[in-house]
Write a structure and sequence with these properties.
Layout lengths: L2 H11 L4 H13 L4 H17 L5 H12 L16 E6 L6 H15 L5 E6 L4 H14 L2 E3 L7 H14 L4 E6 L6 H18 L4 E9 L5 H13 L3 E5 L9 H9 L3 E5 L7 E3 L2 H9 L2
Parallel strand pairs: 1-4, 1-5, 2-3, 2-4, 5-6, 6-7
Antiparallel strand pairs: 7-8
Helix pairs in contact: 1-4, 1-11, 2-3, 3-4, 5-6, 7-8, 8-9, 9-10
This protein binds guanosine-5'-triphosphate and magnesium ion.
Length: 288
């Protein structure tokens, strides 16, 4: 059962007594919006129901949606055709960075045909990571700029930006490594890569996405804290949305860090990648 179905079933089952609101808080926490916010939302709903004389579960559910709506942020990804656009795909290991690079490349080509797209193999940690991106590039017919395993990711990015400029391409999508020995190493590496791109990418539209796995729940908050703290993230790509019935994490990161969501990964195929839509998301979360 999807999360919205659970919320719907929940409201259907109950008349609006106090215990109902407590149970609703539990359900929202389970949905990953964060405990303190869940209580805040339930308090607001309770008050609104009293003040506005809301007695039917259906009306309460609509109210809940209204209370959540201002806390959902969306980032629209636009390719500026007049200059080079650079996207850095960041995140811890296994969240779906490499797949999302390929999906974003595919999506960009479909919405803006003729945009020259280039993939950059910035995960130089493992040889397999470079090969994985190359395979995507072959399948999609998109050029991949890569160096050997162990090379400096900043240098790969530098090369990719040069190649894009030389080829008059408009979009560079860069994969990055998710694993580092320590948090300090990771932060140092992120800052360095960001610095190189900012120097090299003067006049470019530069976007940093943090990829979060929808199934990791509150762990994602820690990841957002570290990455956003290191390089100032522009938006979230939430992957594996198809594998969870929740997804309240989008609201939690928006509340906590002000971060908007740009895309949802909804499966393993290239096409399973959709721009984030607030109303559609809210409907998934609490019902239409
Ligand atoms: N169901 C589903 N699976 C996904 C989605 N996005 C990625 N995956 C799968 O998640 C797994 C990991 O994806 P990768 O793209 O390799 O993740 P990564 O962050 O690059 O991983 P590392 O390079 O090892 O850090 C793969 O099996 C993907 O097919 C999604 O939206 N839905
Ligand atoms: Mg990868």
């Amino acid at each position: 059962m999807g999360f919205a179905d659970r919320i719907k079933a929940f409201f259907r089952r109950n008349t609006l007594g106090d215990e109902v609101f407590e149970d609703l808080a539990d359900l929202l926490i389970e949905g990953d919006i964060g405990a303190s916010f869940a209580f805040e939302v339930v308090d607001a709903l309770k008050q609104a129901c009293r003040k506005e004389g809301i007695t039917t579960p259906e009306a309460a559910r609509a109210k809940l949606k209204g209370i959540l709506r201002p806390h959902v942020r969306r980032a629209e990804f636009r390719i500026d055709p007049s200059r080079l656009n650079i996207v850095l795909m960041l995140g811890v290991n296994g969240v779906g960075k490499t797949t999302s690079c390929a999906k974003l490349a595919n999506w960009s080509r479909s919405v803006a045909p003729g945009t020259g797209v280039l993939l950059a193999a910035g995960d130089t940690f493992r040889a397999a990571a470079i090969d994985q991106l190359k395979i995507h590039g072959q399948r999609l017919g998109i050029r991949v700029v890569a160096q050997q395993q162990g090379s400096d990711p900043g240098a790969v990015l530098y090369d990719a930006i040069e190649a894009a400029r030389a080829g008059n391409m408009r979009l560079v999508i860069a994969d990055t490594a998710g694993r580092m020995h320590t948090r300090a190493d990771l932060v140092k590496e992120l800052e360095k890569m960001d610095r190189i791109i900012r120097q090299r990418a003067e006049g470019c539209a530069y976007t940093k996405y943090l990829v979060l796995d929808a199934t990791t729940g509150q762990n994602a908050m820690r990841q957002a804290e570290i990455f956003h703290g290191a390089v100032s993230i522009d938006g979230i790509v939430m992957t594996k949305y198809d594998s969870t019935s929740k997804g309240g994490m989008v609201i939690a990161v928006s509340r906590q860090f002000g971060l908007p969501t740009a895309f949802l990964g909804t499966g393993e195929k290239y096409e399973n990648f959709i721009p984030f839509d607030t109303e559609r998301y809210l409907t998934d979360f609490v019902g239409e």
